[in-house]
Design a protein that fits this description.
single chain; 11 strands; 54% strand; globular
Length: 114
């Protein structure tokens, strides 16, 4: 059983920044697993945002490349999403996901106003 808890969401103005955190607990070899961030805007399907692989490889959706940075602290079993230059279209509920267990967090709301 793996539990994921996101935090750090909030409301910011366009151009602002937020850092999301996702803490993992339970039976998980955190350092070995690929970790993802997804988001879901109102009325839209959930979409992939970024992935962190233990080897240090990261990948991003084109819509956030250059603005968002995914990182991880394996000792703390936590993955982060630093979001800069936020735009109103980034407004969504952001979810953390561990691929191996296909487990999801409860999500954290990010609202960007123009």
């Amino acid at each position: 059983q793996v539990q994921l808890v996101e935090s750090g969401g909030g409301s910011v103005q366009s151009g602002g920044s937020l850092r999301l955190s996702c803490a993992a607990s339970g039976s998980i070899f955190f350092s070995a697993y690929a970790m993802d961030w997804y988001r879901q805007a109102p009325g839209k399907q959930r979409e992939w945002v970024a992935t962190s692989i233990n080897s240090g490889i990261t990948s991003y959706a084109d819509s956030v490349k250059g603005r968002f940075t995914i990182s991880r602290d394996n000792a703390k079993k936590t993955v982060y999403l630093q979001m800069n230059s936020l735009k109103p279209e980034d407004t969504a509920v952001y979810y953390c996901h561990v691929e191996y267990h296909d487990s999801w967090g409860q999500g954290t709301q990010v609202t960007v106003s123009s």
